[in-house]
Specification:
The protein is mainly beta. The chain contains 1 helix and 8 strands.
């Protein structure tokens, strides 16, 4: 019985191995060997400082990671009427062309953005 439990535990661990990378990494297997398209953009957000965005597109999934004020965020693309809208935790990052707005949902859904940003050249 103990051997069967150990074997089952080892099999479960091996099944998870592709998704577990080195410390500080997350690996997401993509179907059909798809390759993600990535881009990095630095934004000037005025008094909010510089925000570094890394966009990762692997249709139908699109993600954005943001580094801002010592925080690291992972956001997922969600439905929007125009532009690309990403949501994660308490934040919304709404990108339209070279402009992006950062919203803090804890301030209320109708609140203005906490930062209005422009892509650095």
């Amino acid at each position: 019985m103990k051997h069967a439990v150990r074997t089952a535990a080892l099999a479960a661990l091996l099944a998870l191995a592709p998704a577990i990378a080195g410390a500080g990494e997350i690996v997401i297997p993509l179907p059909g060997g798809a390759s993600p398209q990535t881009s990095r953009v630095a934004y000037d957000c005025g008094g909010y400082g510089t925000v570094e965005a890394h966009y990762i597109n692997a249709p139908p999934v699109a993600l954005a990671t943001l580094s801002l004020k010592g925080e690291f965020l992972v956001l997922s693309n969600v439905l929007s009427g125009s532009g690309a809208r990403y949501a994660g935790g308490k934040y919304i990052w709404w990108n339209k062309g070279n402009k992006s707005d950062l919203y803090d949902l804890t301030m209320g859904e109708d609140s203005p953005p906490v930062a209005s940003c422009t892509a650095s050249s």
